[in-house]
Amino acid sequence: MNIPFERYTFINGLDAICAYDKGEIEALVRPIVSPTSPRIAYARLFGIPPQDMSNAWPDLGITLTSPTTDPVTTVSLSQPTNELSGLLGLGSQFALSLKIQREGVSQHDQAETILKKFSDALFFQIDLLTDVPLSLARDRNSLRVRPRKKKRNTQLELKYPSTEYDSAPVSLYWYARSAVGMPLLQFLAYYQVIEFYYPTYSQAEARRRLKGILKDPTFRGDRDADIGRVLSAIQITRSGAVGDERSQLKATLSECIDPDALRDFLMSDPQRVDFLSSKAKGLTDHRLPLAATNVDLRNDVAERIYEIRCKIVHTKTDARTGDFELLLPFSKKAEQLHFDIELVQYLAQQVLVNASTSI
What we know:
The chain is of the alpha+beta class. It has two domains: 5-164, no CATH class; 194-358, no CATH class. It is 45% helix and 11% strand. The protein contains 14 helices and nine strands. The strands form two sheets. Strands 1, 2, 3, 4, 5, 6 and 7 form a seven-stranded antiparallel beta sheet that branches. The chain has a two-stranded antiparallel ribbon with strand order 8-9. Strand 4 and strand 5 (73-78) form a beta hairpin. Helix 7 (198-215) crosses helix 9 (245-256) and helix 9 crosses helix 12 (298-313). Mean pLDDT is 85; it is low at 139-144.
C-alpha cells in the first residue's frame, strides 16, 4: 500500500513497468543461461568473486548517461526498486533490473520500443564483453550448456548505448541464445541472422562483378555470350539477393568477417581446433584447414556452415552437389554441433556489428 501503483503501467509480455509522469521504465532482467545460478552470472557481470556477492550486492550497479541532451537519457542496471519488487512480488535476493530514465515517454508502445531498443544494445555489448547473455524477464527454462572459456579481460568497461541493431536479426540472435538444449534450432537461428543480410552484401558482390565485366575492353553488348555473363552476375532471387544461397553466404562473410580475427577465434580453443579440423562423420565432410596459416578461412567456413544448414533443413541440396543425410534432433550427431554453434554464433555477432547503425 506504500506504492502508488495507480501511476504505473505494465509493459505487455514483460515483467516491466513504466511511470509516464516520471519518464521511468523498469524491467526485470535475468540471465538467459546461468552457469550455476543468477548469483554466479552476476558475479561475472560485475567482476567480483561469487563469495562476496551477498555483502556487495546492495551497492552493485552500472549507470550510463547519454552524451547529448536531446533528450537526456539514463540507463542503469542494479537491484530492482521497491516499486518493481512490490508489483511483481519478487522474493529472490539476486534480482536485477534495467532502468531507463527518459523524458517524453507517454505511451505504452513508445515505452516498449525504447525498452527493447536500449536493452538490445546494452545486453549485446555485455554479451560480447563478458559472455553473460541477459534478457528482459520472460518465462524461460534454465538449461546447461558446454562450459565456455572466460574472457581474458575481466574488467567490464561499458559505454552508453550508441549503436542500434536491426530488430529482426537481433531478435533472432536472442532467440538463438535462449534455445539452449535445442542445437538444431539454435544453429538455424544464428544462421538466419546472417541470412537476413544476404540481399545487402550479395548485391555489393554482384556490383563488383558487373563492373569488372563492363570494364572489360572485349565486352560486346550485342554478343549473346557477353549478355549471358551479365545475366549470370546479376541473377536475383525472390528475396532480392544475388546468386545461389551458398554464394550469398560467402559474399556476406567476405564483407563482414575479418580473416585474421576469424582465425584467432578458431585457434583460441584447442578442442575447437581438433574438432573443426578433423572429419566429423555424419555431421560434415568439410574440414577447416587450420594448419595452413596462410589460407583465408572464410570460404571454407562458409562451405562447412552451409553443408550443416542443408542437413538440418532438408535431405537434398541442388542437383550439382547431390544428397545430404538428414541431421535429426536428439541424435548423437546433433550433440556434436556445439563447436559449430559457437562458430556460427561468432559469425552472427560480427555480421550484426558490421551492419549496425547509430542509435
